[in-house]
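Example S7 (structure tokens).
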């Protein structure tokens, strides 16, 4: 596996779907570091009165990775309750385009001091 590291800025634009029991947001990201480009997607989330929460998102990265241009789709799945939390972000197999056409792997999101960084483990 290869590794790419860097930072990203994220802007979440909440959408009002009053009739739905979950929240929806548009995701806009700017990636720097070993991945340079943008991410755009949609997130569906739900938080219960007890504090349990879940989110799912589909994000399309477009830019460069390891000096290769193209795009790929990231699938986010996260959950938490009072005892645990989990987050998995994987590259959708077969979603890569152009020079990133055969990419597979996963992305780790790290939040520290109000900043976001990533570690992408991938292969071609």
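Recovered sequence:
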């Amino acid at each position: 596996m290869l590794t790419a590291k860097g930072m990203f800025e994220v802007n979440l634009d909440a959408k009002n779907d009053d009739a739905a029991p979950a929240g929806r947001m548009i995701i806009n990201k700017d990636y720097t570091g070993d991945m340079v480009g943008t991410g755009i997607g949609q997130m569906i989330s739900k938080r219960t009165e007890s504090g349990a929460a879940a989110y799912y998102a589909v994000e399309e990265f477009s830019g460069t990775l390891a000096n290769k241009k193209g795009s790929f789709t990231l699938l986010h799945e996260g959950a938490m309750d009072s005892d645990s939390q989990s987050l998995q972000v994987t590259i959708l197999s077969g979603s890569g385009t152009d020079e990133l056409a055969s990419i597979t792997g996963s992305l780790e999101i790290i939040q520290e001091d109000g900043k976001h960084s990533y570690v992408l483990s991938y292969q071609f």
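Notes on this example. The first strand starts at residue 2 and ends at 15.
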